[in-house]
Amino acid sequence: MHEEVKPDIITMAKGITSGYLPLSATCVKREIYEAYAGEDTYDRLRHVNTFGGHPASCAVALANLEIMENEKLVERSDTLGQDMLERLQELKRASICR
Asked: How far apart (Å, rounded) are the C-alpha atoms in residues 52 and 21?
């Protein structure tokens, strides 16, 4: 989303809990979900994974996402990334780097 890209499918795992507990998830656009949707509730698209849905892991993920939002970590990573890029470009221009 940072680059104006809207993916059809997103997978996530360890990072969602910062590695404290195992958890993974798959998110899809509504159009993809609807293409697989069955006619009744139990015939819907179901994807089961090894580390999906454990209550403790989900609680950790929610807390982790709250920290990411409150501390504006996405915005901060953009700022730090730009700073790092500028510094690397300076190094690239240095005569000792070829």
From this structure: 11
